[in-house]
Predict the 3D structure of the following.
Amino acid sequence: MRTQVMAERAAGMPWLEYIPAEGGPPERTPIPSFPFTLGRNESADLPIASSRVSREHAVILRDGGGYRVRDLGSTNGTYVNGRRIDEAPLEDGDLLVVADVEFTFFAGAHRTEADRATQPIARPAGGSGEPAAAALVYEIRRLQEEVVGGGVEPRLWPIVSLSDGSLFGHEVLCEADLPESASPAVRRSVLRSESRWTAWLRRLARLRAAELAAESPAPPFSSGKPPKRGPGRLFVKLDASEIGAAGLAESLFGLADMLGQRGRLVVELPDSAVADTPYLRRLCQTLRSEGIGVAHDGFSAGPAQLAQRASLAPEYLKLAPAVVRGVDRHKERRRQIHAIVEAAAALHCQVIAAGLAGPQEASASRDAGCTLGQYQTADVPSETFVAL
């Protein structure tokens, strides 16, 4: 790869940062003009010496006040924050993977830390605007105080053993609601905006769930039988937008420390974001080194596709609800699940049947080889952590 050194005059430009695999200081490549091409060709604005990179692989474009990246029909794909894309926005700090070469994109010095932390709040449509906007800002500030004061409670979704119905753990849903006192105007303007409020609520909900789990290390068992596995697991479902985000691993380490025992935290990677990239391999290895389990959520492919993920082999594989639906009535579906279970066993991976509609589907999933299950009911109160 051709190394470029950023001059002082280029400091305000966007740039790509590459960390050599053999170590050494990061290499920064300024992006002085657009379109900015990446590929194996020497004529590319950034030539990349990797056999997996296509000759004309991707291009970075200016998009109004922001930036976009477009894949140029490459063989091995372009990824933004772990998700393969045809075209996608590029934001400050995004992880950009070109085939097997990783970069971090920086938007340039004109984007201040305050700009990255806080996005503007849209003015409500209609009316004179000023009084409504002022009221909206005031209510958002009030809600921030309410949330920090304990106004967020996590949504917990139980995962049970299909052999005896005992509670294996809980999943913390990635969604988190605003407090009930939030007005419809705030929900529209905040939850659908780019204010990053939803990401903040998600983090708070996970912290609260970890607190509850740490306070009640012995979970209840629906069958009334004594615990067989020790403390229950806490499954944290990541959103695809979090893959590649700065500080992700550190935040997960913090949750694991709160639980106080290795093996209790399991991180769920959305199946749409699972790809055999250097970043994901390193992330999974790092999590396991800290005693954090890995699950793939929403799996709907076949045994062959699972075998291709050997380098990313999870401890748990959660089937998509569409795969499980009607398993008690369709013999072919049971065969499909059984084949996936056999492939998962070769990777020492437990299979979770998600979206169970009732005991009939649970029994059929168990007969097909699934060891764990998750029912459709998701609104489980936090008090579930308290022994019954």
